[in-house]
């Protein structure tokens, strides 16, 4: 199985940390070694949020991902900040509704998905993150839909139980694109 | 086996402290350890415990001293600048022979420094946790699972040896999530005949103090304490090692840095380099004997830390010239990468081949 060093980045409020937690939980349920590390403290306020997620066969060494093989960028500043750190052969996922950038690198695979627009069209407001997660799941195969659904059940707090179905629908939508 | 759950280091440690029998927490928020406060503020009232956000770190540590005097399991937690404020209280507890748990989720200093991970409080924790001739037990977890396992051990040893224990974590361990398992381990209980619990005219009163104005009595107190320290150094050292048997180069690292070094060591082994890793789990007591032994077979020792070189001095003393001691460190919240450590190992071993 492939080891994943993922970097997920965007604005605060886009659900970046939650998205990373779902990925990590899926890895845990697949009985792999995982870690999740957020950016924290004042750097979060009003600015970018990002988290490192590692999924591995071996115990995770550094939980801080500086050279990701998967980058998920949900806004322009995050794309600009991290695109050069992706290892050659890496996969990059962007919300093309929000990231209007050309990519000069030809040694990576770039997946553009108008996730924010899709979330509006499909009445999935606020969970573009889950749509991108679906695309990420389909293209990387880091886990299975079944496991991700179970991971979502673990990650969605009881008070927001009614949103679980929406989240699963968003993941499936992303997988269909 | 109990279920593996994903938990943040700070929250895992807080839950473990409860399961280890702690019902009294006094603290003050500071990044990157605030989740310990937040978690316990939710949990303690539900289980009949005390969560108190004090007006300052000084107040919090002195509340711990009061609770510990009464014989209950009490703790406080903070991050580097807050720990500096607590050192007066820590010294008083050492001088009063009181057990307690202090958690330092380190950030960068000096001063307010920064909020990123650091290991720059090693010297403070192991050399001068307060004024006076003194030591505290210092544990350095490297995984979120150890943030769960160590509080049990720390409370138990603190009570058996009647002294404060510190868990020296850092921002990485506090903030990261990893799978953990909570076993049904029940907390060990220790007798505390010295506790000020009310004598009810049935026994002579207990008196907790660190003030001894008669130099002969104070010298005796300090000497007794150091006899206990010697016993701890003999019996309570904890380490984890890998690939040490034939290692030409032994990497010594603790906490989060050790997990980064483990990645580098594993990689180096696949390249045929004879390197191993020694991870002190207890920083005080420090694994002096083990290092001295390793220095008999290894030619080089490389200490890696997130500071400008603190533990490396203890390594030098232990190795005592029997091997060449090298240092690699990052400061200011910069985290070394496995590639950095690998490059350092190649430089050391490559130089020899040339």
Explain what you see.
The complex is a heterodimer of chains A (177) and B (354). Chain A is 36% helix and 21% strand. Chain A has 177 residues and is of the alpha/beta class. Chain A has one domain (4-175): 3-Layer(aba) Sandwich (Pyruvate-ferredoxin Oxidoreductase, domain 3), CATH 3.40.920. In chain A, strand 4, helix 2 and strand 5 form a beta-alpha-beta unit. In chain A, helix 4 (128-140) crosses helix 6. Chain A is globular. In chain B, the strands form three sheets. Chain B has a seven-stranded mixed sheet, with helices on both faces. In chain B, strands 9-11-10-13-14 form a five-stranded mixed sheet, sandwiched between helices. Chain B has a two-stranded antiparallel sheet with strand order 1-8. Chain B has two domains: 4-198 and 207-235, Thiamin diphosphate (ThDP)-binding fold, Pyr/PP domains (Rossmann fold, 3-Layer(aba) Sandwich), CATH 3.40.50.970; 241-349, Rossmann fold (3-Layer(aba) Sandwich), CATH 3.40.50.920. Chain B contains twelve helices and 14 strands. The mean pLDDT of chain B is 96.
Q: Helix and strand string of chain A, N-terminal first?
A: EHEEEHEEHHHH
Q: What is the number of independent domains of chain A?
A: 1
Give unreliable regions of chain A as ranges: none
Largest sheet of chain A: 6 strands, mixed
The pLDDT mean of chain B sits at: 96
Query: Count the helices of chain A. How many?
Result: 6
Shape of chain A: globular
- Strand fraction of chain B equals 15-25%
**Can you give the helix content of chain B as a percent range?**
40-55%
Q: Which spans of chain B of ≥5 residues are poorly predicted at pLDDT below 50?
A: none
From N to C, what is the helix and strand string of chain B? EHEHEHEHEHEHEHEHEEHEEHEHEH
Q: In percent, how much strand structure appears in the residues of chain A?
A: 15-25%
What do we call the CATH topology of chain A?
Pyruvate-ferredoxin Oxidoreductase, domain 3
Please state the second-level CATH architecture of chain A: 3-Layer(aba) Sandwich
């Amino acid at each position: 199985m492939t080891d994943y060093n993922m970097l997920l980045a965007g604005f605060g409020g886009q659900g970046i940390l939650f998205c990373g937690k779902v990925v990590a939980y899926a890895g845990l349920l697949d009985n792999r070694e995982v870690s999740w590390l957020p950016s924290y403290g004042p750097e979060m306020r009003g600015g970018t949020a990002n988290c490192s997620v590692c999924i591995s066969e071996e115990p995770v060494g550094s939980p801080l991902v500086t050279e990701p093989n998967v980058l998920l960028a949900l806004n322009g500043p995050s794309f600009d900040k991290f695109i050069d750190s992706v290892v050659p052969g890496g996969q990059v996922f962007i919300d093309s509704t929000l990231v209007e950038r050309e990519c000069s690198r030809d040694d990576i695979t770039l997946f553009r998905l108008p996730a924010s627009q899709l979330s509006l069209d499909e009445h999935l407001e606020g969970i573009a993150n889950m749509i991108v997660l679906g695309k990420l799941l389909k293209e990387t195969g880091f886990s299975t839909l079944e496991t991700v659904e179970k991971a979502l059940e673990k990650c969605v707090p009881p008070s927001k139980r009614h949103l679980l179905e929406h989240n699963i629908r968003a993941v499936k939508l992303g997988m269909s694109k | 086996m109990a279920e593996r759950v994903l938990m943040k280091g700070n929250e895992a440690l807080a839950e473990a402290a409860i399961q280890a029998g702690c019902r009294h927490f006094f603290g003050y928020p500071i990044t990157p350890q605030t989740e310990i406060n937040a978690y316990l503020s939710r949990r303690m009232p539900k289980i009949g415990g005390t969560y108190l956000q004090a007006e300052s770190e000084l107040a919090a540590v002195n509340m711990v001293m009061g609770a510990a005097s009464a014989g209950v399991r009490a703790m406080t937690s903070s991050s580097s600048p807050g720990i500096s404020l607590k050192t007066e209280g820590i010294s008083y507890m050492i001088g009063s022979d009181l057990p307690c748990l202090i958690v330092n989720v380190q950030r960068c200093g000096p001063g307010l420094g920064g909020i990123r991970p650091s290991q720059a409080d090693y010297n403070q924790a192991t050399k001068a946790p307060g004024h006076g001739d003194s030591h505290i037990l210092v544990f350095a977890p490297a995984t979120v699972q150890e943030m769960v396992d160590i509080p049990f051990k720390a409370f138990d040893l603190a009570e058996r040896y009647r002294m404060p224990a510190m868990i020296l974590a850092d921002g990485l361990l506090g903030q990261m999530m990893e799978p953990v398992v909570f076993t049904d381990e029940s907390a060990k209980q220790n007798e505390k005949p010295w506790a000020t619990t009310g004598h009810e005219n049935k026994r002579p009163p207990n008196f907790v103090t660190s003030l001894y104005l008669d130099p002969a009595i104070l010298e005796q107190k300090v000497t007794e304490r150091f006899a206990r320290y010697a016993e701890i150094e003999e019996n309570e050292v904890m380490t984890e090692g890998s690939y040490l048997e034939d290692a030409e180069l032994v990497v010594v690292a603790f906490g989060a840095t050790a997990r980064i070094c483990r990645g580098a060591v594993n990689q180096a082994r696949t390249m045929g380099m004879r390197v191993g890793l020694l991870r002190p789990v207890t920083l005080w007591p420090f694994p002096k004997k083990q290092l001295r032994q390793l220095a008999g077979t290894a030619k080089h020792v490389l200490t890696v830390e997130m500071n400008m070189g603190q533990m490396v001095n203890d390594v030098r003393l232990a190795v005592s010239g029997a091997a060449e001691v090298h240092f690699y460190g990052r400061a200011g919240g910069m985290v070394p990468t496995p590639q950095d450590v690998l490059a350092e190992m190649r430089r050391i071993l490559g130089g020899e081949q040339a």
